[in-house]
Amino acid sequence: MNLGMTEILIILLIALLLFGPRKLPELGRSLGQSIREFQRGAKSIREEFEKAADVKEFREIKEEISKPLEEIKKPLEVKEESKS
């Protein structure tokens, strides 16, 4: 959705007529603050998903490594028990 210069001017003119010149700066500030808060929240959620994906990836790597190690360990445990 791309807005051209004429569309932006029409929106500003309508907002000026609806809210008046005194309320418009206040409205702009509150809109800007709302957008910033939304962006912070979205960034926080994105970071949490990335952390969760990293943890899942590390668990998968651990499982891939531990399975062959367990297979190697089993014959060694049997040999140690027979020596005792």
Note the run of SSEs as H and E.
Answer: H
Outline, from the CA principal axes?
Answer: rod-shaped
The radius of gyration computed from the alpha-carbon positions, rounded to a whole number of angstroms, is: 31 Å
Structural class: mainly alpha
Mean pLDDT: 84
Describe the largest sheet.
Answer: none
Helix content: over 70%
Number of strands: 0
Beta-strand content bin: under 5%
Measured between the Cα atoms of the first and last residue, the distance is: 77 Å
List low-confidence stretches.
none
The helix tally amounts to 1
What's the short version?
The protein has 84 residues and is mostly helical. The protein has 1 helix and no strands.
What are the main properties of this structure?
84 residues; mainly alpha; 0% strand; rod-shaped; 1 helix
Structure description:
With 84 residues, the chain is an all-alpha fold. Helices cover 94% and strands 0% of the residues. It contains one helix and no strands. The chain has one helix at 5-83.
